[in-house]
Amino acid sequence: MGTPHARKGNTRQRIQDVALELFAEQGYEKTSLREIAERLDVTKAALYYHFKTKEDIVISLFQDLARPIDELIEWAAAQPRTLETKHEVLRRYSEALRSAEPLFRFMQENQATVRDLSIGETFKQRMLRLTGLLREPEAQLTDQVRCITAIFSMHAGLFAMQNVEGDPEDKRKAVLEVATELITAAQPPGLG
């Protein structure tokens, strides 16, 4: 995120961004709606117009993250199960993750909250659908592991690569390359 209010745009997005900043700085439990309103320099009533609770803010963030993933799953389900399609799924997923990095950090640091809000379960269901579009059910176990690992390497890349020197975009491309290699290695002969 870097700068406050990095996403320009509407108040709803600004509230989400500032809430994520505060959650990262001091933790979800210790952050109040009042503090979010103060950081935004708006009244609590103005904040209430968009979100009644902190939970509403987090759920809205997950819904916003889920939209491009749902669109990707829907698109991929309508495509032939070729290697080219699978490469495109990974490329598009990498793009979707780029804007979701602060939310993934929140999930990592607030796992109990994510579980309590049941958003963790819906996110898990999306990941199962996404990996299901990449792996072949009849494939050898090692190839199924490659496909699942490809997706999770992209998630891990958001965190693990923070401690690796280099340009963030170059690191994202390197993670995508590794995920693509895993999917390519797992593709059964004859499924192009």
TrEMBL record:
DNA-binding region (UniProt annotation): 32-51
One Pfam family from the record: TetR_N
The keyword Amino-acid biosynthesis appears for this protein: no
Keywords: DNA-binding
Residues of the HTH tetR-type domain: 9-69
GO molecular function: DNA binding
InterPro entries, per database record: DNA-bd_HTH_TetR-type_CS, Homeodomain-like_sf, HTH-type_Tx_Regulator, HTH_TetR
Entry annotated with the keyword DNA-binding: yes
UniProt protein name: TetR family transcriptional regulator
Origin species: Streptomyces paromomycinus
